[in-house]
Automatic annotation (TrEMBL):
The keyword S-adenosyl-L-methionine does not apply. SMART domains: LRR_SD22, LRR_TYP. This is LRRCT domain-containing protein. Keywords: Glycoprotein, Leucine-rich repeat, Repeat, Signal. InterPro entries: Leu-rich_rpt, Leu-rich_rpt_typical-subtyp, LRR_dom_sf.
Length: 350
């Protein structure tokens, strides 16, 4: 009997729920509160005006907003959280986020934005994170999402004067070019994700002045070459992901003087050669993943400066079995314990 009553109650809740309530559509990031306004999935084409200035959270996900006008929410000076994901935004007018000194979370993912003008986020001094997630979480320390748009270039000064920014994710755009100085003046940045774009080259100085950066993801791009000293100004870097690119060679000094680096992923590239001294002064490196490249041999001194406790993954390369490589496998065997590595034996040795 108790089970039947419970089923009946659930049925009544379903049939009585209004179709236009937030619960009937996409989830609402607002808990019931006089300081939060949930307007997601309402078919809105612009940001409503004359909203109470006491609001600290504004949820406008899954509408049809195409443009954010200058000063559209500038009267809501108490705002800490704004969700604008899953709209049709193509343009953000200058001054759109002016006069929002408390803003911590700004989600703009899954729109049609092609360009972020320099100064768009200027003076959002409480903003700490730029991330791709849409779901609300329990940490409102600050977010600004720009992933899953159509951004093609990051201009110098785009993220100017964001002294508290800690996480910046711009994955799944169409970024081809990063101007020098694009990430300048981000002294607290910890995480930078630029994966799944169309970047072909990383210029020296691109990541300069990021003294606290710990995670850098550049996977799933079209990078063909990584210049020497690109990562030299990242003393706190721990995770560096360059997998699924088109890198053909690792030059001497490419990964040098990164004292905190623990995880370096270079799998699924087209690497044929690693020069001697490519990996220098990496005392904390624990994982080096070079699977599924085009290497048939390795320079004798390529791994000499690496810590002995390191795990190197080399599966999926067309290794040749000759005298030079035999010496390499014998002297470096501890790196490759518990791995199955396929080696091609030349005809002359068969």
């Amino acid at each position: 009997m108790r089970i039947k009553l419970r089923h009946l109650l659930m049925f009544l809740i379903i049939i009585l729920k209004k179709p236009n309530t937030p619960e009937a559509g996409w989830f609402c990031s607002c808990a019931p509160s006089p300081n939060c306004k949930c307007l997601n999935n309402q078919g809105l084409t612009s940001i409503p005006q004359n909203l109470p200035t006491s609001f600290t959270r504004l949820d406008l996900k899954r509408n049809k907003i195409a443009m954010i006008q200058s000063g559209a929410i500038s009267n809501l000076t108490q705002l800490k959280v704004v969700y604008l994901s899953y709209n049709k935004i193509t343009m953000i007018k200058p001054g759109a986020f002016a006069n929002l000194p408390q803003l911590q979370v700004l989600c703009l993912s899954d729109n049609h934005i092609t360009m972020i003008q320099a100064g768009t986020f200027t003076n959002l001094t409480h903003l700490k994170k730029v991330v791709p997630v849409l779901e609300p979480d329990n940490n409102d320390s600050g977010r600004l999402s720009l992933s899953w748009n159509q951004i093609t270039m990051i201009q110098a000064g785009t993220f100017g004067n964001l002294p508290q920014l800690q996480n910046l994710h711009m994955r799944d755009n169409q970024i081809k070019m990063i101007e020098e100085g694009a990430f300048a003046n981000l002294p607290q940045l910890l995480v930078l994700s630029l994966s799944s774009n169309q970047i072909t080259m990383i210029e020296a100085g691109t990541f300069a002045n990021l003294p606290l950066l710990q995670t850098l993801s550049l996977s799933c791009n079209k990078i063909q070459m990584v210049r020497e000293c690109v990562f030299v100004s990242l003393p706190q870097l721990q995770l560096l992901w360059l997998s699924d690119n088109q890198i053909t060679m690792i030059q001497a000094g490419t990964f040098a003087n990164l004292p905190q680096l623990q995880d370096l992923r270079l799998f699924n590239n087209q690497i044929t050669m690693i020069q001697a001294c490519a990996f220098v002064n990496l005392p904390k490196l624990k994982r080096l993943d070079l699977r599924n490249n085009m290497m048939s041999a390795i320079a004798p001194l390529a791994f000499d400066s690496l810590p002995s406790s390191l795990t190197i993954k080399l599966n999926g390369n067309p290794w040749q079995c000759d005298c030079k490589m035999a010496l390499f496998w014998l002297t470096k065997f501890p790196f490759f314990k518990d791995q199955t590595i396929n080696i091609t034996i030349p005809v002359r040795l068969m």
